[in-house]
Design a protein that fits this description.
480 residues; alpha/beta; FAD/NAD(P)-binding domain; 3 domains; five-stranded parallel β-sheet
Length: 480
Amino acid sequence: MKNKTDTTELSEILKHKSTLSRRDAIKLMGISPIAAGVLASTSGSSIAEASADVSGKIVIVGGGAGGIMALSRLVNGISNPDITIIAPNEVHLYQPGQVFVGAGELKFDDLVIDNNRYINQDKVTWEKDEVSSFDPDNNTVTTRAGKTISYDYLVVAAGIQYHYEKIKGLSKDDIGKNGVTSVYLSDLEKGTAHGATATWSWFNELKEAAKTTKPKVIYTQPNTPIKCGGAPQKMLYLSADYLKQEGLSADYTFATNGGKLFSLPEIADSLTKIQKRYDTITNKFKHNLIAIDTKAKKATFEHKYTEKGEWDEDLEEFDMIDKKEEVVLDYDFIHVVPPMAAVDAVANSALAWQKGSAKGWLEVDKYSLQHRRYKNVFGIGDVCGIPKGKTGGSARHHGPIMVGNLIATMKGEEPKEVFDGYTVCPLKTQYGEIIMAEFNYDGPAPSFPLAYEKPRWVWWAFDLYMLEPMYKYLMLPGRM
């Protein structure tokens, strides 16, 4: 139990929540049961034993969150590691912060992470290039520069790519112009987050327009898996709240390829209630953006639906006929979430799922994170073709599981660590409130005995003020 001094100190910090400093944030992280619980949430997973006496050359592909976390854990977990990391980027971005930049709560500089802080070149070989092809049958990869690198064990942390070009009429160059934005757009190699900064400008352009008219605003979600599945709705609610604070409103449309607001019924019900705060929000389910005319400001969606057919006397039920149509919606402003996929080098390789809904993503077992056919290959992060897990929170939980199983394999043992599918989606429902949706393969998996479907300020404080220092000083170095 927290003592009286800690409780008083926590209360004093929270009284000044609107001006919480980084120093107070770190102090809060140290005394808050929320932060303590997050730290403890990893303790149930067995981490690879320190200084394991194993041998073999490990190659890690990718220099984002997953790649750096895997590297740190392997360097700390093997007594004499032989590790090469292949990554072209000197920096990577703290991606959970992109939504906060888009909403004006953080600056771009807050997102930039220097990879040199985590890649110790006295212990690790750093190939500043990217993999262009994988040859798992011969245990090699080839880089963009044409260099062939062999391995005994491979960790794929190649991440995800955005396909704006698959929306007819749209390109990356359109983001930030003519009422079009996308908080996702970034360039890891250059260390830019143009989409996030463009979205903050978009918020303010939308506010100015709402002073004289009621603009039509569309928020889209595609028919592919995406990084952080709640992000499209985050942008909807934050921009709507931004207007509401000024007594303004708009005509909002959430157009998603999905059939409901969220996979967990309790959270979907909560979001339905939250939408009523914001004047007019129209949900268009089973609508996938396929084309956009940025000059005419028209967005075309493919709408899939079912229609009742004739009565089947044998089955004693109506035939259900699949239908689809194109729907064109006018807009003044639009936030686009592009189709996403594994990087081409993975998707076009023997390492990818060759069929099914996960086709093109890395074919790993959803529990062990070990490749299903190539047992010396493991995955971490967004690239994994598993049912859940394209979030930073998932990658954090992947880390100890994947490393524990990799080291077991290096010892000639069977992998025993089990990933339960944990993922987390901090749904920002307004400025100062978040629903912390934590779930796994079996359903809700809250870290605390709280009603997980309710929005709370404490989660906003955690996500905005505490998560970034935890990411830098605990997650990336492999300490949690």
